[in-house]
Amino acid sequence: MGPKNQDYSEHPKFHVALDCIIFGFEQGELKLLIHKRRIEPFKGHWSLFGGFLKDKESLTDAANRILRELTGLEKIYMEEIQTYGEIKRDPAARVISVAYYALIPSHRYSDEHSKQYGATWVSLKDLPALIMDHDTMVEKGLMRLRRRASSQPIGFELLPREFTIPQLQTLYEAIYQSELDKRNFRKKILSKDVLIKLEEKDKIHSRKGAFLYRFDKRKYKHLVDGGYNFTI
Amino acid sequence: MGPKNQDYSEHPKFHVALDCIIFGFEQGELKLLIHKRRIEPFKGHWSLFGGFLKDKESLTDAANRILRELTGLEKIYMEEIQTYGEIKRDPAARVISVAYYALIPSHRYSDEHSKQYGATWVSLKDLPALIMDHDTMVEKGLMRLRRRASSQPIGFELLPREFTIPQLQTLYEAIYQSELDKRNFRKKILSKDVLIKLEEKDKIHSRKGAFLYRFDKRKYKHLVDGGYNFTI
DNA sequence: TCAAAAGTGTTGTTGATACACCCATGA
DNA sequence: TCATGGGTGTATCAACAACACTTTTGA
């Protein structure tokens, strides 16, 4: 079992980068966190947040590092989307880039970070053109988000810990870009039995006020362990 | 827009490899094409087929090259699964590996190739332990195969051009590892209206003989272009 | 003539959709 | 008192699951 010291030295090496497709939800809209690139090539053009892989870190470590540096947040929901390896995708040099998508509860994202990194939340509806193959990445990330949203309760990653049913519905409508019937939505989401109804109401968004709910992670985990398949 | 010559030279470089999770279907069983590794480390242990990325090729080119060299076939159904970047995944050196899964119609796979590369079809049921993180890759590839099989008509990639309904059912049963009702299966698959019934029967697998069908790619493409969502 | 696999319809259940009115509240 | 958004129930339809017998043919 002991490996001899084969070093693969006859094979070429490549720069490996990561790009993060960061989704958030603000003012009833699905948004993407982007910035104006500060280095050449494409300096000053809109870009996803990214960075290079370092010697002593795994890919997931690197993605987490980039998100942590940018947002100050730990334990962000994150998933690999795809790896991009076209030869000329970066005109400056050959770079293999692994795209991750991340969901962040935008209310926990502070403006200080935003200023420091020049980060901007942009509504998906008026997204500017992005550099290189970043548009493709976003497209693919959005598809993944839709798929995930319909099979796992990830919507909760984008909302505050306490939220109302109408809020949750607005989120799903933003994700799917289509209107949902509120009676059917409520019925379906409550039938999953993974929401805890709280005593208080949210009185900010309406006069009447809507009851707050919290996602019951324990119950959800229990269901999943029992082979349950969450579906919206 | 003209990039200055930024060369990213302060960032480290890595070996980039590809590993192929190659599924086939033989004798009513779902199989995986593997071999005994010929280089250190892990020489002589069961491994997926893989190889290193070259300077002048994209990731998909590389995956296609590896599959072509191994099978002699072009236009194989192939899809990226995930990229593996743990630091110690290969004890000999740091290697980032992109895992692809591929479906090959095993009847078109010749034994010569098999001998030349020491390739072996192994039933998923009695799969030996594989090196490094290849077990994880296979697990993930299998999940992807199941997901795809239920949303795209990929089953046809694994069968000869002409096949019978019972054959197709056996394939789906092998993929899902569960028995299906033949009346319901036939009803459902025919209702998709993407199979062309032929005049001839296959008389090899039964006395009575079963009608042969062919997948109607044109019709399928037409449906998909019209927004149709194939589902099994 | 019999064993082995192909082929065929109906029924009940469940989940999805469509749809309209009353309620609570702050301004 | 009224405008705004929150909350509720039912009826219809489509998709899915369960289920048993007849047909063909080579040995």
Model description:
2 copies of one chain form a homodimer. Chain A is α+β, with helices and mostly antiparallel strands and 232 residues long. In chain A, 29% of the residues lie in helices and 28% in strands. Chain A has helices spanning 59-71, 111-117, 134-149, 165-176, 182-191, 217-225, and strands at residues 13-26, 29-36, 46-47, 49-52, 77-84, 95-103, 120-123, 162-164, 195-202, 210-215. In chain A, the strands form 2 sheets. In chain A, strands 1, 2, 3, 4, 5, 6 and 7 form a 7-stranded mixed β-sheet that branches. A 3-stranded antiparallel β-sheet of chain A has the order 8-10-9. In chain A, strand 9 and strand 10 (210-215) form a beta hairpin. Chain A is globular. Strand 1 of chain A pairs antiparallel with strand 1 of chain B. Chain A binds a DNA duplex (27 and 27 nucleotides) through helix 5.
Provide the descriptors you would attach to this structure in a database record.
homodimer; 232 residues; alpha+beta; Nucleoside Triphosphate Pyrophosphohydrolase; Arc Repressor Mutant, subunit A; seven-stranded mixed beta sheet; three-stranded antiparallel beta sheet; 6 helices; 10 strands; 29% helix; globular; disordered N terminus; DNA-binding
Q: What is the multimeric organization of the chains shown?
A: homodimer
Most extensive interface: pair and counts?
A-B, 42 and 42 residues
Could you give a short account of the major beta sheet of chain A?
Answer: 7 strands, mixed
Class by helix and strand content of chain A? alpha+beta
Return the domain count of chain A: 2
Name of the CATH superfamily of the largest domain in chain A: Nucleoside Triphosphate Pyrophosphohydrolase
**Could you please say which CATH topology of the largest domain in chain A applies here?**
Nucleoside Triphosphate Pyrophosphohydrolase
How many runs of DSSP E, i.e. beta strands of chain A? Answer: 10
Helix content of chain A: 25-40%
Shape of chain A: globular
- Detail the poorly predicted runs of chain A: 1-5
Please tally the helical runs of chain A, counting DSSP H or I stretches of 4 or more residues: 6
Question: What fraction strand of chain A?
Answer: 25-35%
User: Would you tell me the overall average pLDDT of chain A?
Assistant: 93
SSE order of chain A, one letter for each helix or strand: EEEEHEEHEHEHHEEH
Instruction: Determine Rg of chain A (CA atoms, Å).
Output: 20 Å
CATH class of the largest domain in chain A: Alpha Beta
What is the terminal-to-terminal distance of chain A? Answer: 48 Å
What's the CATH architecture name of the largest domain in chain A?
Alpha-Beta Complex
